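Researcher: Please predict.
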Amino acid sequence: MKKTAAIFLLFFFNSAIYGQEEKADSTKILDEVTIKAFEQNKSLRNSTATVKIIGFNNGDRNNKTSLVNGFNTVAGVRMEERSPGSYRINIRGSSLRSPFGVRNVKVYWNSIPLTDPGGNTYFNQLAWNNFSSIEIFKGPAGSMYGAGTGGLILVNNFDSWKPGASLEYVTGSYNLQNIFTSVSFGKKENKNQITYAHNQTDGFRVQTKMRKDNFSWQSQLKLSHKQELSAAVLFSNMFYETPGALTLAEFTANPKAARPAAGAFPSSVDAKAAIYQKNITAGFTNVYHINSSFKNSTTVYGAFSQIKNPAVRNYERRNEPSFGGRSFFTYKKKDKNDNEFQLVGGSEFQQGYFNTQVSKNKNGNPDTLQTNDDIDYTTYNFFVQGDATLNKKWFINSGISLNKTKVNFSRLNQYPVLKQSRSYKNELAPRISLKKLFTNDFSVKATVSRGFSPPTVGELLPSTGVISTELEAEYGWNYELTLANRFFHNRLDIDVTAFYFKLNNALVQRRDLSGADFFVNAGDVQQKGIEIHTDYLISNSTSKFLDYCQFRVDYTYNHFRYGSFIKGADDFSGKTVPSIPANTLSALADAQLKNGAYANITYYSASKIFLNDANTATAEPYHLLGFRAGWKKIVQSKYKLNFYAGVDNLLNEVYSLGNDINAAANRFYNAAPTRNYYVGLSFQWIKATKK
């Protein structure tokens, strides 16, 4: 990590050369962002939630094919992409539960759950213009959001809504074709937005073509001084090929290759391995202010996902309708001494009626039926939470939830019909967080929370087709401490967080010779880590050339070890948990000139990653450097032009991103793109509004 440390120092000392007054826009970014997690609706400075924001200042830096670069700018967060369109996310944890997809992380879009009742999130259905900001909460969020140990993601719209229209086109290497368009209309009391996005690429590897079309509609309507109604629809139609993992010898010889034929299994090309995915989610939220202190917020939604997956070993078809709702009451009061008190209580319910059929794959088409399963998955929770702000110095948040999960399987392809069920007992998930502002610049925050996470449908019925209702839920206690300080008249922000999370019955992924995944419970996992975030801002109102510069560095240290973990004759106790690097570093540098020219530099590094529980296989460290330059022009105060060009992986690293963990036959590696280029052009019209 010597190279990493050197680049860290380079970014830090370059930023220390300057010292001007802070820009108002950046003050808004750093200080006035409203944190919505846990219904706190407070500024970042006054929130007890450990939240980081992905906005366009740290996310809009590449070709917009995926959100990988944006998520990986946040300490403690790691997003991977096995092939274009195939994401997985972990927050302060490992990827052991996510051979593909996003599991054990609760995701909401405009208050509507995108995480289905079975615990899976099709995060790839989102496009760049479906959100204005993303909140990432680290640590168990079960005290208010139900089962889960892996964190919380809130995808928000309307943070900075203005009537108008926009159109953006991006093209680049591997036949990249991206189109983003949106129309916003209405007024402050009746906001509407319609978006469309098209993403297409041939991919870096053989068998990695991707195509996605995305449509969304959001509306907010103020019905009266007491009532507000919002509605949203999200639809995506996606196709992406899956090349399969390679052995180290295959990866070294040709990282672009798809998985070759082996034994009785065909190659990924011959199997026409791919995902055909359609998702639609629709819902509405009603907020009713009963009086000045008391209100109710109720969300009702429905969703449907259809997945077709020809793979090397079979052809899987899934139909996944679901519905649910979330309702809570909020009581808020402020006394004569300006102390604030808030009490929140409510419940969330989700129900899924899924069907999964697995057939033999014959040249990319379903052949003989192997299994046919109906899955009835129910989950609900009740929660209560209290907040107190005392003397504008003490901030206290305390909550607890009661959770229940039940799943029923019916195997329909055999007679008599095989039925299996499992209930996961009522689990309490408490959380308490205390924050003290010692000065206007220095604060200390401490949090203790418990997480509980039953197996998802994908773990209870993995791609082996074996129903695994014997799996236990994982659970554990999380402890964390955060120190935050501002220097140089708020130009430099630094916060440091240390955490310890002991996870019992941790769910761990295995893969058989065909590449099918299955899961087992480990004894316990001890997760310790340190996260450091720095943000330095320079603005120069007196300069004729420089508008502002901003530097940001995020560093993560992970010390994740198995406690007692014995499976059969194998003893993995004390081994490093695979799938997560011990060290990651993200560094960003932005410069904006007053003539409209700008430049962005992005750097990311990860240390070596163990790929199996025995720690006998590794992925090598890598360093990624990206650069983008562009020019912005505002015409007549209502037209905005932006032309840019950039390069990703400037150092031309050959590395694996989204490794297959604990894979049989040592098929671990999924190569990521080497050096690639892109150019983009956007046009935005902002409608003039009456003051």
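Model: The helical segments are 2-15, 24-31, 56-59, 68-71, 142-145, 248-253, 268-271, 457-460.
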